[in-house]
């Protein structure tokens, strides 16, 4: 066993690897708090490539392409703190509870993930302990601090989706997702439908649920704060100009509803 293997045995992240949380505008005090769980596609050194070629590690199965760029622009426009997560959702999906199978998927879309096959509970727990919980504990602490200061908070999460999934085309350009909180998010969806010519998905191409999501049910609904999840079709986020345009639209929609 090499010195590196010995140092990392039983651990997922090596000492030199970054914390899962990357923050922007940490001191911002606006009423919004933004989360981007699938911002990065890093794979810890201890896990190699998860058995995947580089092409697959760059695909949407590994991260939400363009989501971080939109979230960063939105953070600047709204003067809002942004919490992004660096590691690939194939390592562990930080928008799933650690006790569900999709937390460490062994198949994503139609692609087998060899490095996730036959994981032990200890393997899954290590990924949760080193990536999932440090990321979400930081969000919890920030929300607790805002509550103690009496700061009003609205939670926004930013995601992207593929234009084609398992051979089926998706017509929506942006989706507005929600579950129990049908005030803030539903009003945003109506604003987008009334004020744009976009094909707006209301709980499309996904819907928020306790088994399929974490940030909205736990950080938003459980606290009783207004919350919304945005999904943008990733072929429409080709560069910074597009990211800025989407962020500007999202900012106008949430601000109009919040007002």
What's this, in brief?
The chain is an alpha/beta fold and about 260 residues long. The protein contains seven helices and eleven strands.
Describe the structure.
- The chain has a single domain (3-258), classed as Aminopeptidase.
- Residues 1-8 have low confidence and may be disordered.
- It has 259 residues and is an alpha/beta fold.
- α5 (184-195) links the parallel β9 (174-177) and β10 (200-202).
- It contains seven helices and eleven strands.
- The termini are far apart.
Strands, count: 11
Second CATH tier, the architecture: 3-Layer(aba) Sandwich
Let me know the average pLDDT. 94
- CA radius of gyration is 18 Å
Instruction: Summarize the amount of helix as a percent range.
Output: 25-40%
CATH superfamily: Zn-dependent exopeptidases
String of helices and strands? HEEHHEEEHEEEEHEHEH
> Cα distance, first to last residue?
60 Å
CATH topology: Aminopeptidase
Structural class, by secondary structure, is: alpha/beta
Dominant shape: globular
How many distinct domains? 1
Number of helices: 7
Oligomer, anyone? single chain
Spans of at least 5 consecutive residues whose pLDDT stays below 50 are: 1-8
Any chance you could write out the topology, listing elements then pairs?
Layout: H1 3-8, E1 21-24, E2 32-36, H2 54-57, H3 67-78, E3 82-85, E4 107-108, E5 111-112, H4 121-149, E6 154-161, E7 164-165, E8 168-169, E9 174-177, H5 184-195, E10 200-202, H6 215-221, E11 227-233, H7 240-258
Parallel strand pairs: 2-3, 2-6, 6-11, 9-10
Antiparallel strand pairs: 1-3, 4-5, 7-8, 9-11
Helix pairs in contact: 3-7, 5-7
